[in-house]
Amino acid sequence: MLEMLSIPFMRQAVIASLILAAMLAYLGIHVVRRRIVFVDLAIAQLSAVGVALGMLLDQDPIGFSLVFTLIGAGLLSLPAYERRIPQEAIMGIVYAVASAAAVLIVAKMPHGEADILNLFFGNILAVTDGQIGLMALTFGSVGLVHLIFAKRLTPIPVLTEPGSNFLFKDMVWNLLFYLTLAIVIAVAIRTAGVLLVFSDLIIPAAVALLFAERLRSLVLMSMVVGVLANLAGLYASYRFDLPSGPSIVASLGIVLALAMIGKGLVLTAFRRSGIRGS
User: How far apart are CA 180 and CA 111, in angstroms?
Assistant: First the structure.
């Protein structure tokens, strides 16, 4: 690990990975508890469309990504009033159409195949000081907003029945959460790619939910899992000369699998001891 940190670009990748893992793991707890995993994936893919369009037009990808992401977050945060179409179906449609749009845009670029890989997996090894600074500033600002309005930004149930009493003030706070999530995704996706951002949001939170219930414990465990898994993935990438993004995603997947197996073994042991004790 120390040898890896002696290389400047690897050191920058580690710093960026730690910032990403901590912020996304925190937001991931809110995403999973709100049961809006598909919303998160749809927003991430809309952000990718913005990045691709910005690259095609030779403009700032983050600016385009932010516009697409904020518009998508605003629309997806509204309560649904059509009972016959489940919200999950709408999210799936948005994700599929946005994925197709991103691929079509990238196909018009000179290095389309390589650009698609960067779009979906990112290239955290190529992160710059400017990108790290932008992430630190953006994530710090979002974290401050969540700290100030912590009680208001706790998971809010979205009522989908027509005529339900979904209060306007709840809608406003719900929208604020979606906007902060969208801003983080728009900045993160340019460096980390769609799959890594989605994995950093969901997998550490899923691991934490296996072992904790209180919000503080969930957030702390999720952040620790995210940071350690990202470091392990980066080290595996360096040690075995593997792509960084897929290595981190695979590391996160392994951690989740081990956590599920570990909890299953513990529960089995408790059940057997209970049977023997009786």
Answer: 32
d(CA 38, CA 18): 24
Buried b (16+ CB within 10 A) or exposed e, 202-213: bbbbbbbbeebe
Residue type, position 39, single letter: V
- Calculate the alpha carbon distances from 45 to 79, 132, 144, 197 in Å: 21, 22, 26, 10
**pTM for this predicted structure:** 0.85
Q: What is the pLDDT of residues 84-98, one digit of tens each?
A: 667 777 788 888 899
| pLDDT tens digits along 50-85 | 888 988 888 888 888 888 988 888 777 766 555 566
Distance CA 109, CA 61 (A): 14
